[in-house]
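HUMAN: Quick job: go over this next protein and say how the chain folds.
***
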Amino acid sequence: MSAAFDQQMVWLLNGVLGVLLISTGVGLVLKKRVTNDFARAVVENLNARIRAWWVMCGIFTLAVLTGGIGSLALFGLISFLALREFITLTPTRLGDHRTLFWSFFVITPLQYYLVGMDRYGLFSILIPVYAFLLVPIRSVLTGDTERFLERVAKIQWGLMVCVYCVSHVPALLTLKIHGYENQNAKLLFYLIFVVQISDVLQYVWGKWLGRYSIAPRVSPNKTWEGFIGGVGCATLIGTALWWVTPFKPWQAAVMSLMITLLGFAGGLTMSAIKRDRGVKDYGALIEGHGGMLDRIDSICFAAPVFFHATRFFFTD
């Protein structure tokens, strides 16, 4: 697998740099002009998000610069941290510890190794089939049956969302698309950028015009106005970026709409889990963004569908 750079990738990264510089400037201006406490809190949250984006974009760029190995290492670490946050939401018992050892230190690295080796036939079923069976087998051998189904299901779900789904992001680098050789890093960029800009625009539209909540008991800040404005604008941006993908403009429109909708569904679903556990964020790793899983919840749902749709329709 490779993540080669070309002139278009440089343009894309320069575009993101420009957006970050403008956002930073706007944030500084707003910080000086706001007067009431509510507006000051909103602006401070916005500036915290911008600072976090500087760090995350820098790490992402470094990973892509180092090629496929760097991307595997980055997303492998992301999966590890996200799984850790997911598992710590509910208490574990002594009978879970060996199963968790296998999940963190065997299954997770093996999944990314298979992705790196381009073993599609194995990495696509390792967790849904083999880990799905291994987790309850290893747990039942401890003899601890208290809340057995709940404990096993939590580990299985964590592996699926945090490891299996996320591993499809670097797996984009393994796709062999005719006429798009050595350009897959742009496809990876496209997925991350469109999904994340949709999140940002939903936040902006929601703060600006948001009035009617979609699921107030799950995520009160997610409004119909934010959803329609954010998804619509992100889809237009994804369509406008068709030239960095193997897609035609109408195909880019379909793909970008698909991943923005899945991203929204992922964020809402992962919020429901947080509400169920009575927490606001999965962690506090990233200033202004909560934990790692708070930042990648939308990618978890979008990545595997985007990967398989691209593989099915655009590879030889």
